[in-house]
Write a structure and sequence with these properties.
Blueprint lengths: L11 E5 L4 H12 L3 E6 L2 H13 L5 E4 L5 H15 L4 E4 L14 H29 L2 E6 L12 H21 L4 E8 L21 H9 L12 H8 L10 E4 L12
Parallel strand pairs: 1-2, 1-4, 2-3, 4-5, 5-6, 6-7
Bound molecules: NADP nicotinamide-adenine-dinucleotide phosphate and D-gluconic acid.
Length: 265
């Protein structure tokens, strides 16, 4: 009987911004599935923090300092990786930022910076690895989207615009490169407990839960925040041969938020 291949043995996986958080969890899952892990972060301190964390997990990761919005730096790093490792099989565009500012108070610079990191950079990095993937006859690109690829909310205009665009960039890469056996899909995490969402979960002075924390619990059928570990299985699936006919899809890993009107107060 045909067995389904979820293995990443001998694959070279580059996860951007993966010193910690969601990217780190995805990298751990890929290492456990047999992949060699490459990651970058924005400064040497974070890269070292990441290397130390991977070492504690028994993972021989390779870390590089690279700002994903810098197209020259990305091109140089891609060339170095292809020279060093011979190929890049899997790219996860994970690096991202958010600025929570009411739109009328948000500067154009703030809006542009969020779009630069969360949308322009995935274009830059994908564009840099695609020629090698075309040459080798296969590749997997996974873009980390968001609930804000589908929904808006107050104070996240730049982030929602970027993540909505990232959904369509995912579909466009699928459309333009599917014929080369390159699959480009997205993962849309729900509300995940990482440093990025820590401000939304801070305990109040009286020890009560943050109002947004309570709100998300009421909007999530699973009645809990997600953890980075909840994303590991879906990420391995989309990086493996098991998903070779899945393309242009955004896989929401949200505990059911998008399907649910929310618990009656
Ligand atoms: P995080 O904890 O803030 O980690 C993001 C990582 O990306 C950090 O290491 C960050 O470095 C790095 N980074 C930021 N800008 C960069 C740049 N220009 N070049 C290279 N690295 C850069 O975020 P997270 O919660 O793990 O989220 C990871 C991804 O999932 C993001 O794309 C986020 O939008 C998305 N997401 C998160 C959630 C959630 O609930 N947490 C849900 C849906 C989607 P610094 O520490 O220097 O910023
Ligand atoms: C916010 C949160 C969300 C999550 C995630 C949800 O302020 O609403 O940060 O944007 O990070 O993107 O999928």
């Amino acid at each position: 009987m045909e067995s389904v291949n979820f293995s990443l043995k001998d694959k070279i996986a580059w996860i951007t911004g993966a010193s910690y958080g969601i990217g780190f969890a995805i990298a751990k899952a890929y290492a456990a599935a047999g992949a060699k892990i490459i990651f970058n972060d924005i400064n040497a301190e974070l890269v070292q923090k990441g290397l130390d964390s991977y070492q504690k997990e028994g993972i021989d990761a390779h870390g590089y300092v690279c700002d994903v919005t810098d197209d020259e730096a990305v091109a140089n790093l891609t060339h170095e990786l292809e020279e060093t490792f011979g190929k890049i099989d899997i790219l996860v565009n994970n690096a991202g930022i958010i600025k929570r500012i009411p739109m009328l108070d948000m500067s154009v610079e703030d809006f542009r910076r969020v779009v630069d990191v969360d949308l322009n950079a995935p274009f830059i990095v994908a564009k840099s690895v695609l020629p090698g993937m075309i040459k080798q006859g296969h590749g997997k690109i996974i873009n980390i989207c968001s609930m804000m690829s589908e929904l808006g909310r107050e104070t996240v205009a730049g982030y929602a615009a970027a993540k909505g665009g990232l959904k369509m960039l995912t579909r466009n890469i699928c459309s333009e490169f599917g014929e080369y056996n390159i699959q480009c899909n997205g993962i849309g995490p729900g509300y995940i407990a990482t440093p990025q969402t820590a401000p939304l979960r801070e305990r109040q002075a009286d020890g009560s839960r943050h109002p947004f924390d309570q709100f998300i619990i009421s909007k999530t059928p699973a009645a809990r925040w997600g953890t980075p570990e909840d994303l590991m299985g879906p990420a391995v699936f989309l990086a493996s041969d098991a998903s070779n006919f899945v393309n242009g899809h955004i896989l929401y890993v949200d505990g059911g938020i998008l399907a649910y009107i929310g618990k009656q107060p």
